[in-house]
Amino acid sequence: WTLSTTNTLKSMDLHESGRLQHQLAVDLDKNINIQWQKHGYPLIGPLTYSVKEIEYIARVIDRTGGGKSTVIAISLGQHFRPFPIDVFIQRTLSIHKAVQCLLL
């Protein structure tokens, strides 16, 4: 959707295989980098993944360079429904800490 509504973003081929590949779009002139990736555990669904492809979002954020103009949008929740609330709370707190470190 974003690529179809913003003509300055260019999709990058990351040479991955599988149904849920990482997605990357960039606009070098405006210094915009948009990426999407599947989340870490818990995974619920019929698809199988290589263990090498799965990582926690907090770790991805920790590797990301940022600053005052950095924007991060994260969608959480749906796959956590069948798990104890403690699992969701722990993951959310880890992501919160990673975002705080990124924006300092």
From TrEMBL:
Signal peptide range: none
Domain NXPE C-terminal, first and last residues per copy: 5-103
UniProt xrefs under PANTHER family: NXPE FAMILY MEMBER, NXPE FAMILY MEMBER 4
Protein name: Protein FAM55D
Native organism: Neovison vison (American mink)
